[in-house]
UniProtKB/TrEMBL annotation:
Protein name, UniProt field: AraC family transcriptional regulator
SMART domains, A to Z: AraC_E_bind (SM00871), HTH_ARAC (SM00342)
Keyword DNA repair: no
Species whose genome carries this gene: Pontibacillus yanchengensis Y32
A Pfam family recorded for this sequence: GyrI-like
Molecular function GO labels: DNA-binding transcription factor activity; sequence-specific DNA binding
Keywords annotated in UniProt: DNA-binding, Transcription, Transcription regulation
InterPro entries assigned to the protein according to its UniProt record, in alphabetical order: AraC_E-bd (IPR010499), GyrI-like (IPR029442), Homeodomain-like_sf (IPR009057), HTH_AraC (IPR018060), HTH_AraC-typ_CS (IPR018062), MarA-like (IPR050959), Reg_factor_effector_dom_sf (IPR011256), Tscrpt_reg_AraC-type_HTH (IPR020449)
Domain of life: Bacteria
HTH araC/xylS-type domain: residues covered: 8-106
Amino acid sequence: MAWVESLQRAIDYMEANLLDDISIERVAKEACTSVFHFQRMFMILTDMSVGEYVRRRRLTLAAHELSRTDNKIIDIAYKYGYDTPESFSKAFRKQHGITPRQTRTFTGKMQSYNRLVIQVNVKGAEPMQYEIVEKEAFQVVGMKQEVSCVGGQNHIEIPKMWDEVNAEGTDKSLFQLNNGEVKGVLGVCVDKGNEKPNYIDYWIATAHEGDVPEGYEALEVPASKWAVFEVHGPMPDAMQKVWKQIVSEWFPSSGYQHAGTPDLEVYSEEDPASPDLYSEVWIPVK
């Protein structure tokens, strides 16, 4: 339950500081995790980025203030972080579907995003298949790209990276190079931490023993205790479903924490659209 409590503490911090410049580094510190892992877990749980949550909450509170007070629209705009009434009105209309002036005259409906409260629900009707394994450090070879996690940019750039790899046939080359203990082509997320907060190195790679082939780079995955989860079904829905179960069900009840080292998604050569596709999620735990 410590994981749930730390996540709620981070949300409470955001709520207490909605009118200030909120540092994602400070928010992640409240959750006792890195910027990348906090943003990733938050996105998986809520289907929105941290920045989007803050924006929606500010505009919800602004709508409440417009309908309940006589405060000037320009003052409310500045209060909730907008430099001009025009930028405030544009963002307000995008969320609520009406203008600030219409809100003041009670014309039309508003869209309210309420404060998040993390709860653990009784679930478990659908079991999760996983095992705990320990492995020594191993080498992967492939290609990497530095990706920003600001505003969920990683959810745009990483699929584009896979599209390019598949279109060029690089995935087939990686399968041929796979001679390590972990079988398949890997998606590897490497948190850059304090070196460059809000950024990760994302690798498309494979476990490979021996010299690094020309045109590829190498990464050593550190020795770890791994929670290895089975994924059954077509991409990307099956993978996303298991990640949501891991974050919302398994972590809160297992007593494990993410170890902070790279995690892996393991893909086979099967048809990614097949309902019988088998994949895995490897999470380093402590």
